[in-house]
Amino acid sequence: MILKELPQWFGISEAIEKYAIEAEHLPMFGKLIGSSYAGFLTLKSVHPGVTEIHVIGVLAELRRQGIGSELIDAAIAFERQRGTGLLTVKTLGISENDPYYAETRAFYSAMGFLAVEEIPNYWNGTHAMLLMAKPL
């Protein structure tokens, strides 16, 4: 599984298992290179007209090759066809000063997502969450 190969972002095995179980029932997009998956993205409807990127992962050695952008573009096209007006994503907050998630936030910003709100103590009562959104 791709998430297990990304411990800097997905280091909690219980969270990986939860993502896997939830993903079974969600729209999913994947990127194949040869016969292996290089990345994937799942979507979750959270409110009428609003969909969240539930999880996205690209193998570390294949990052910065456009795979994440392709996955986001596929998700945007899918959601526009469904009439969705807003695509959101939750990521580790800016106040956490994590270099890996700083890259993640920069990626989302480059894809047109705007920082909406940072909520302290969101995850496990200790980690801040940054909500980002992209109007479609």
SSE inventory with pairings:
Elements: H1 13-23, E1 28-33, E2 36-47, E3 50-58, H2 67-81, E4 86-92, H3 99-110, E5 114-123, E6 127-135
Parallel strand pairs: 3-4
Antiparallel strand pairs: 1-2, 2-3, 4-6, 5-6
Structure notes:
There is one protein chain. By secondary structure, the chain is of the alpha+beta class. The protein has a single domain (2-135), classed as Aminopeptidase, CATH 3.40.630. Helices cover 28% and strands 39% of the residues. It has three helices and six strands, in the order H-E-E-E-H-E-H-E-E. A six-stranded mixed β-sheet has the order 1-2-3-4-6-5, with helices on one face. A hairpin with a 2-residue loop joins strand 1 (28-33) and strand 2. The longest helix has 15 residues, at 67-81. The relative contact order is 0.14.
In N-to-C order, the SSE pattern is HEEEHEHEE
In the CATH scheme, what's the topology name? Aminopeptidase
Q: What is the share of helical residues?
A: 25-40%
Amount of beta strand: 35-45%
Specify the CATH architecture: 3-Layer(aba) Sandwich
User: How many helix segments?
Assistant: 3
Sheet/helix structural class: alpha+beta
Q: Give a count of the beta strands, DSSP E runs of length 2 or more.
A: 6
Head-to-tail CA distance between termini = 30 Å
Spatial arrangement of strands, main beta sheet: 1-2-3-4-6-5
* The named CATH superfamily: Gcn5-related N-acetyltransferase (GNAT)
Give the class-level CATH name. Answer: Alpha Beta
Question: Tell me about the biggest sheet?
Answer: 6 strands, mixed
